[in-house]
Every structure is written in structure tokens, then in C-alpha cells.
């Protein structure tokens, strides 16, 4: 068998590396809300079918309750169990989950599926759970923390919450770098939205944020993904879980590529019922990256849900108190809402093609294995 020639290896490396960087699907990012045709239909989200469960209560057996149990299991309200084990019986575990959910979201604690509870459940939301290791991060955690002393507790001060064990970036950290998955090929306009989101947190704390082109060495790694993308937290299409991020110092920040993301214009005036404001979601998820859990204060950016066609980017006092508890106060912060975009680092190859690293790695592998 003839060995491949060097020029053949180079061509092969190019196509393999190009394919690797395109495993991530392109995000549905719209530069301006005016780019859509009118759409006056109500949004049809991933959980819209739950609306059919209105009025269900303890003792009922109704088609769809098993799926609702899976929803509550996903966000920590029901103990982990294979979805196939869930029945359509409205049992004690479901009633308990509903009561805790209602308390967390400032609803009347009835234990049954009234209109206001289901209207909250079907809203788009962050994929981070409200209850972790049996401990609620929200209202229920203030009066009824986990009974087991062996499990980590959420530290609750005021209404904001922190992750179990209070993870944060190391003491003395002054700057965090962030980078974008090169497979997404995001425009400068989209990157600017994230810069603005980081700036809102930098304004009130001692932390600074800087974009870098070095994706694999960045402190925070941002990417758009579809469906099951390998981290155990699959996305579910339009208006389900919008994004999720991991607590310090993991640094992973993932967004659902199948959402209709808006990067400019007045999202509240969008004709598209499924329009989601990118900066609003980015500000929320950065809070998780820095160590904040979910808040029960509806005005806070760390509240778990956000409606489509809504912009929510200004940090509430609850958000500010929480992040300053972790990292201290920016000495220049005067309580105003003005923000400026952090500097971007182009000294480490930001002008190079997004697949150059993969090309080198792939070529090296092919060269030494095939020659």
C-alpha cells in the first residue's frame, strides 16, 4: 500500500479540522428584531403541553403528569429517578414538589396545579436547578433547609443565594478571561452583547473581564449548542431551557442554539413571539459563573425564568449584594447604571482563522500516524 504524500495529508487535515469546528450548529442569532416577518401567534414552548394539566390535584390520574414529574426532577424538586419510572398519578411526591415550587416562586402554596402555577412553569428558564443536593436555593431554603447535615447547604443572605460550599474564583483574582467556541463563528456584534453583560457585573465588583481568542485556556468558555451536547444537560428547543452555566471555577457557559436570539433593537416590540433577548440571558448566566444561585426576587436578574420578548439586564439590589458578598465592591461604583465594554485581547491570535488550532493538531496526528 502506498503511503500518502505530504500534500495529500495537508489537504486531508484541512477538511478534517474544518469538519471538527463545525460540529457545533450555528446559533439562531438575529441582528435586529425588525428582520422578522410579523408573528402574532402565542409562543409555543417546550412545556406548553403542561397547560392541559390545569386543576389537577392529589389523587388524580391524568395523561402528562409523568412528564411534569420529569420537569420537577430536572430542576431538583423531585429526587432523581429514571423518567420511565414516573407515573401519571398525582401522588404525595408531586404535591410536595408543587408546594416547594410555589413557595420558591412567590405563589400561593396550594399543592395543586392552578393557573398561576402553570403559567410560571411553562415560562422559558435557566437550566440550572433550583434545588441542588436536596437544598433549595430560593425561598424554601430560608426556612426549610435540608435535614441532613451531611449534605451541603446553600448559604442564604437576604434573598440572593450561593452554590453549596460557596464556590468562587480564588481570593485575589482581579481579572477573568472569556472566549467563544470557534465553531460558532460569532459576529463582533454578538460578541459585543456578551461584553456588555460582563460589564454589568464588573461595574459593581472588583472583577474585570477580558475577551481572549484562546478558547481552551480561557477562564470562561462560551458556546451555542443544540440538544444533547455532552455535559449531561441537553437543550430542548425553543423556549424551554435557554442556557446554563456551571459554578466556579468550571467556567462553562452554554446557550441553546435553537432559540431565536435577539442581539439589538427593542425585543419587547418584536413581532416574533419566541424572541429571546441575548444580553438578558447572558447577564443571568454570568451570575452563575461567578457563584450566585437563583433568587426568589422577581426583579433580580438571578430569578430563574424570563418571558420571551422581555429585556432584563439591570442588576437589582439583591444581585449587587450577592456578588459584592463574594468579591467585594468596585471602588468606582457609585450606584449608577452606566456600563462600558471590557477590552478585548487580540494579541493571542484573534485575527487568525477559527480552525487553525484544529488544523495543526489534526495534521500532527495524521503526519505521525500515517507516514
TrEMBL record:
GO terms for cellular component: extracellular matrix. Belongs to the peptidase M10A family. Matrix metalloproteinases (MMPs) subfamily. CDD domains: ZnMc_MMP. One of its GO terms (molecular function) is metalloendopeptidase activity. The lineage of its organism: Eukaryota, Viridiplantae, Streptophyta, Embryophyta, Tracheophyta. Residues 165-329 form the Peptidase metallopeptidase domain. Pfam families: Peptidase_M10 (PF00413), PG_binding_1 (PF01471). InterPro entries: M10A_MMP (IPR033739), MetalloPept_cat_dom_sf (IPR024079), Pept_M10_metallopeptidase (IPR001818), Pept_M10A (IPR021190), Peptidase_Metallo (IPR006026), Peptidoglycan-bd-like (IPR002477), PGBD-like_sf (IPR036365). Zn(2+) 2 binds at residues 126, 284, 288, 294, 302. It comes from Vigna unguiculata (Cowpea). Keywords: Calcium, Glycoprotein, Hydrolase, Metal-binding, Metalloprotease, Protease, Signal, Zinc, Zymogen. A motif (Cysteine switch) lies at residues 124-157. This is Gelatinase A. The active site is at residue 285. Ca(2+) 2 binds at residue 219. Ca(2+) 3 binds at residues 236-237, 256, 259. Residues 1-26 form the signal peptide. Ca(2+) 1 binds at residue 259.
